[in-house]
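Handout for the seminar on molecular recognition.
Each group receives one record of this type.
Step one: identify the two inputs.
Step two: read the structure output and locate the region that could contact adenosine monophosphate.
Step three: write two sentences on what you found, then compare them with the reference statements printed after the record.
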Amino acid sequence: MLSGISTNNAYDYQLLIKHIFNTPIVYNPDQEIVYRGEKRFSYAEFKKRVQRLANLLTDLGVKAGDTVAVMDYDSHRYLECYFAIPMIGAILHTINIRLSPEQILFTIEHAEDDVILVHHDFLPILEQIKGRLDIETFIAFSEDGVLPHTTIPLQGEYEALLAKSHDVFNFPDFNENTRATTFYTTGTTGLPKGVYFSHRQLVLHTLGSLSTLASAPKQGNFNQGDVYMPITPMFHVHAWGLPYVATFLGVKQVYPGKYVPDLLLELIDTEKVTFSHCVPTIMHMLFNSPKINSIDLSHWKVIIGGAALPKAMCEEGLRRGIDLFTGYGMSETCPILSLAQLTPEMLACNPKEQSEVRVKTGRPMGLVEMQIVDETMQLVANDGESTGEIVVRSPWLTEGYFKDTKNSEHLWHGGYLHTGDMAYRDAKGYLKITDRCNDMIKVGGEWISSLELEDILNQHASVKEVAVIGISDEKWGERPLALVIVDSLKPTTEKELLLHAKEFIKKGIMARESMLMKILFVENITKTSVGKINKKELRNHYKTL
Ligand code: AMP
């Protein structure tokens, strides 16, 4: 603060989540928050429920600096926790419910959780690790308001406890750098690693995302007229931070609970959902549901992230009238870094040409600096070809891994956050990830992108799903192995798929070494706890092939 020009009584406005809660862009007290089409709350009721939750937790002894964990599906309850817990100065730990009980125990202990709010479906997990849990306070979420039977010592059922709590709470001011959230990345190696974000980071991520999404003239836009439904789990990177953006915008929000393809489609239809985000695996599930053909999706905008958007999926989405485009980020980055929105000129192009851009990794959002560098941290040329690692600076990156100095230093070496993703940048500023550093395949000295090979195979009509990994080879060092799930109505052969890939080699899109690819037809492809292809597991499984 400059001495002599400050006013004693001037309000020292800290960037706190309570300001997103208190000052939505639209004053919309009657706007709805819907759960599975079964329960509806107005924003006015939501505000009271958040204040009741704050009273409930503080009455139970939760204080600033304590950690409150949540195990739930995507719900209005989770949204209430997104606000009430950080706003009382505590830390929200969003537990990844798809981890094994041992890994969940590890994250609960490592995050030093004090209280757990748990959906009754996940009580059996806690029962398994009960003897080793050093926690006294548990609150149950139940769908029917009934207290579940369990050996876990519950304080009570959420709705009943909320009803007994006072609906006014005066949320305090504190330093904007206070930790607000934490969760664990499953990563590809070692134990889960904890990342953490402050109030300031979450507020700036909300504003940064909103400014990039809301300022798009037509395509890839999120605005006050939209109806929002997340389809990325709320335990994973704050559902990409978009529940905060939606609340700040004051739009109708729809929470789908446990993901069931037909219910998701029904909600899109009946609640008139216009804005969502998901990983390609979920979109794949929706495209495979027969129900999709009876639904008008021409008003639906969807960010696809967490993994590359396959061109074939993008084209199918466009055929169905969906505005599909890529978003990129990672657990360590809050998460959103870039979006593949189209310029107005590109919107005039045909769907095939548009897809070329929509599947790119996108251009950095405001306040995000993304560099592509070689091993010595020198910038590579923006020529649409030269690849290097993406390194980042922005106000919303985790400052490190919780209680893990060594990995934190590695993450931030050279003063930039290292994403571990290889990419190139074209002349228009769009980045395109070619692979995770560890997933590139080196065939006879030539680097081959597993993602590009997947994309090419995905464009064959018989291919339902594909994963490409490197397996060791005496002669070539490594060679690609494509694990392919075939559409049972359109059988194919290894020879036919290789001929298909050869077409792309002829066009100069793929290196010749790609033809050394071995193809294996499989029934299923292992996924991680957040629905991505688990390449580490697949490499392990097929290493002796
Ligand atoms: P996670 O921390 O589990 O969210 O995983 C982050 C990683 O997912 C990134 O480092 C990328 O490797 C990958 N990823 C996320 N978004 C994209 C995208 N749009 N295209 C390709 N890979 C992506």
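Reference statements: The longest strand covers residues 463-473. The pocket of adenosine monophosphate is lined by residues 185, 237, 305-308, 326, 328, 330-331, 361, 419-421, 433, 436, 530 (CB under 6 Å).
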